[in-house]
Design goal:
- This protein is 46% helix and 16% strand.
- It is globular and about 50 Å long.
- The chain has a single domain (11-242), classed as NAD(P)-binding Rossmann-like Domain (Rossmann fold).
- A seven-stranded parallel sheet has the order 3-2-1-4-5-6-7, with helices on both faces.
- It has helices at 20-31, 44-56, 71-85, 108-132, 146-149, 155-174, 193-198, 201-208, 219-230; strands at 11-15, 35-40, 60-65, 88-93, 133-142, 181-185, 241-242.
- The chain is of the alpha/beta class.
Amino acid sequence: MSQLDPDHPRVAVVTGGSRGIGGQAARRLAADGFAVVIGYAGNQDLAGTTVKEITAAGGRAVAVQADVADEQAVAALFGTAESAYGGVDVVVHAAGRMLLAPIADLDLAELDMLHRTNIRGTFVVAQQAARRVRPGGAIVTFSTSVVGLAFPGYGAYGASKGAVEAVTLILARELRGRDVTVNAVAPGPTATDLFLDVNDDEAVARLAAQPPLERLGTPEDIAEVVAFLASPAGHWINGQVIRANGGII
């Protein structure tokens, strides 16, 4: 654990915190001494496992179910952070949905569901974060390197994450004078269930070979970037999109 005051820890809200990048970010922040409130959509068992891992290591954590596109549920998530731990210092919005399809073949009903989570969900979480994060805090959203790389098949997903980047950069400027940073992390291909579930073995191998480091990213790689942005050392980074992709250009 870090040197943070154990009686008055900094507090992090992590959406999508039951698994993948969100789960690893929750564990990493807990290791730095944060009390962590884990938001999850539906998998209570996975969220509970993350909480147990954090508490077994001496940290503090609680899991709260919340649809990120539901403003009342997200308000309750933030309310739990305030009632349980006294406030909110860091928000990591890692919840998201991925859909791959050529634009010509895209099911528009699926597009609507994707955008409900990735765009509306980002707005809802950003609203609560903007209202509640304490001075000295940080808000971290998630985009994707696909916004710049323009991989075929990622039109719907890339469009939703382009919106996330716009919201993030504008919010950073709207919080002038608050001493709160707002940044987006844009991973490249990363070995999460979300990524592996929508790509076949051939695609995974092709994407893993693209970075000069010649591998997929890991949730741990991305969680280190989040931890830096959440720390005092990263507080001068503000209003940026950080493309954490091993050097793909």
